[in-house]
Amino acid sequence: MFLPRLKLAICLVVVLHVGATFTASPDHVVLTLEEESEVYDVPCLEWQYFKVEFTEACKDLEILVSHQRGEPNLYVSRGATKYPTENSLAWSSYNWGSDRLAISSWDPEFTVGTFYIGVHAYCGDDVDTGNTPARFTVKASSVESSHFHDQIMPNGEALTGQIEKNGYGYFRFCIPDSCVNIEVNLGNCNDPTSCPNSYAWPELLVSRSIVVPTVNDQAWKLADINRRSVKIDHDDPEFYPGHYFVGVYGWCTAPDQCNDPSTCGPCDNYPITYDVSLTLKVIASGCKPKEPLGLCEGGGSAAVKVSVLVVVLTTLLTVIFMS
Fold this sequence. Notes:
This protein is an alpha+beta fold. The protein has three helices and 18 strands. Helix 1 (2-21) packs antiparallel against helix 3. 24% of the residues are buried.
């Protein structure tokens, strides 16, 4: 009797496992980047959900809902919210007619991975379309990112700026791959002999998440008048692909506190002109790529499913072997 019961138990385990494997969300239509979807008709006040994989850490994700009739409204989420609505944490666009939404890769909530898209068929007396069901198509695209800081291109030309004493200048750069060593270089005259009235030692700041870093913020820094670049190696545990913000601070010493002008950088020498550049060296071997920093996905529901499965299997096996 033992062998038939064992075979039955194995079959039950296989059936349960196969059933659990195919419990993915069937109501999410999978979109392919740069391809327009088929036409969807959605009844009043109902939802149609989509999802798209986005893997470009230095590009923006643009979603276009092309309206044909009715009033479709667009909501997009990341992380644990797989069914965004008007009441959830989400990017959104609810213009009359078509909706175009650009999710910036500079957004602190942005990370590569799966984006979930909900299109709501809004109806009511407050819109010209009344109770007309929504008809639309959806398209997700990768577009160039834009930001108010000037962008430093890897191994490109240096960018020039000017700062006042105790003032700041800001830049940005993006690293799509973690298997690189980077060096952010700050250039200006810091030789009291060559430029006695304009030499200075401005501070350099590199932040992973703070758009306008200051000297008190968490950032890579010079903190030394003899070092004029910030180096971040691929094996630095804090280095990840993605966006970085660069600050240049006009550090100086007040005249009454500057006993040795060759070491203090007098405030009277400001404003000064400087340049910043970015050197990037690819690591050809021995580097394991890192994924960009991501949001917590929340594994609660998956953990519950696993626990339930374990309980069910335990109960079935007990019944089989004791009968």
